[in-house]
Amino acid sequence: MIPSIPQKIKLLDANILKIIAVVTMLIDHTALAILMNRILLPAAPISRGTGLYRLYMLYKVLRGVGRTAFPIFCFMLAEGFYHTKDRQKYALRLLIAAIVSEVPFDLAFYDTPMYTGYQNVCFTLLLGFLLLWEWEYFKNKWYIQVVLGLLLGFTAWFFKTDYSWHGVLLIFIFYLLHDFRIPQLICGAISMLWEWPSVFSFILLLFYNGKKGHQLKYFFYIFYPAHLFLLWILYVCL
Which of 40, 104, 138, 196 is paired with 59 by a 20 to 30 Å CA distance? Predict the structure, then answer.
């Protein structure tokens, strides 16, 4: 028998989890865009025992904290897939967010408005959402499900979206084990061991109570490109 999570410890609603994800994402991106790209890289190589080395260690800690964000976003996406009344509009929002965010993403991390070597995480979330959608649409045709699923994972890998096929797989795990929370989180954590600091986020997800909380529906779509653009402005000003 699969153990269940006691109701009394389920203290976090969807909105609180999203806020945690947004804050840790901001920490992560600030560390990369400012600490690494603007301060540490221009000063390389960095010697042990120096102030820059201590700053580098701070950078590593902040990036580790930032790994919390992505699994939470994937988890919320899988939950959203189950509860949304209009999957077409949901997918369209993700597509628009991905397109709008690409230039700020490239500016923040590569200091150029067009960098084709790596794509923002909204594309990964979109591909994951499409995988869940096709999996349900072709539920009686497993061979189509598998082929399309592999194709979507390959697309993430080929176009080098953030977290690549690993992210698409994580979304699928959250979906496939939706009704079995503990196995869902264990399998999800195992799939992310290659990015081991992210495992902490799966502990947070144990406390999810299934409620929406106070809704800030479009804030998260706006925040992603906006914070990237502001980080680039800060990068330029420094």
Answer: 104
